[in-house]
Amino acid sequence: MANAPINPTDVGTPPVEQPVNKVTIGDVSDRREPPAEIDAVIEVEDVSVYYGAYEAVRGVNLQIGYNEITALIGPSGCGKSTVLRCFNRMNDLVVGARVKGRITYHGNDLYHADIDPIEVRRRIGMVFQKPNPFPKSIYDNIAYGPRVNGLKTKNMDDLVEQALTRAALWDEVKDKLKESALALSGGQQQRLCIARTIAVQPEVILMDEPCSALDPIATARIEDLMHELARDFTIIIVTHNMQQAARVSDRTAFFTAEVDDKGERHGRLVEFDRTSQIFTNPNDKRTEDYITGRFG
Ligand code: ADP
Question: How far, in Å, is the centroid of ligand 1 from the Cα of 179?
């Protein structure tokens, strides 16, 4: 540029477009890039969810890939938890909640009259925001589910050990299995809840903000654990932490709340894609505004 002719009308250097503040994708090197075609375990077709007359979420279409981690992100109140709870019929327990549209699990309508919601919740387990161990021993927390579900096991001790090992907790608790679960740290309690979920041999694990009550070290352990678990389980996580979604998930669904002409807010799915795509090159301006921190 040093030899460029001077233009008398030049009023200075044109503004340089600032690079958008992309969210840093975790360790890209060991990320699995999911296939373009989704091998769907759960399919959501034009689903709307109502609480009484209020349509909280409108017209969602989504596919959950087998042994993938799918993150649901978006600002508070956009319906992430509502959608998550549809996957194991937890909304059945909310008075006035109603699901319109179709959700299939291995091609079967999850809301068909013949489907037993208890069996759905065994196959599609849930880990909540706040660790919620039973006020029982560590051992009994794990053994409880298999017992009440009548799971045939020759050796409960082995099952307890396996579940705790898979939840990366065994080494820390193997010498105090009869002690109260409530004496564990928050992070340990959350891994115990994951072990309790695994113990009934689900296929899908739903996680609703599983780290929001945990410190960064406990959070990192859960995130590592999620990567391990994704070898054997399909995981769907709601998180308000975008870095977490970027670090742990294979695909991301971005939701937002839109206000209609009557002034009512409805949660909408804006964009669903591979996580790398969502966080580096989103298709929708609303997604870009959200992940770059301009909104939400
Ligand atoms: P998010 O998880 O994205 O924060 P939610 O799914 O919790 O959003 O909520 C979506 C909308 O549904 C919000 O307007 C919220 O107030 C409403 N909502 C959630 N749960 C209930 C409920 N049990 N009864 C009535 N409204 C609810």
Answer: 37
* Fold adopted by 36-291: Rossmann fold (3.40.50)
In the block, tokens 């859960």 appear at 222
The total of other beta-carbon atoms located within 10 Å of residue 165's CB is 14
Does any ligand 1 atom lie closer than 6 A to the CB of residue 256?
no
Rounded to the nearest 10 degrees, what angle do helices 186-199 and 138-148 cross at? 20
Q: Which residue has the tokens 């795509």?
A: 277
Q: Is the CB of 78 under 6 A from ligand 1?
A: yes
Interior angle at CA 268, CA 267 and CA 271, nearest 5 = 140
Residue identifier of the C-alpha nearest atom 22 of ligand 1: 51
Contact (Cβ atoms closer than 8 angstroms) between residue 204 and residue 235? yes
Torsion over CA: 177, 182, 183, 185 (sign) = positive
> How confident is the chain (296 residues) per 10-residue block, as mean pLDDT?
42 48 48 88 98 97 97 96 97 95 97 95 96 97 92 88 95 98 97 96 97 93 94 96 94 96 95 96 94 76
Q: For residue 49, which atom of ligand 1 is closest to its CA?
A: 12
Per-position b or e across 211-247, b if 16+ CB within 10 A of its CB: bebbeeebbebbbebbbebbeebbbbbbbebbebbbb
Q: What whole-number distance in Å separates Cα of residue 178 and Cα of residue 243?
A: 37
How far apart CA 205 and CA 240 sit, in angstroms, is: 18
Torsion angle of alpha carbons 237, 239, 242, 247, nearest 10°? -40
| Strands annotated E in 119-175 | 124-127
What is the pairing mode between strands 108-109 and 204-208? unpaired
Residue ranges per domain, the chain?
Answer: 36-291
Q: Which two tokens stand for residue 97?
A: 């909640």
Assess contact for 222 and 241: CB atoms under 8 A: no
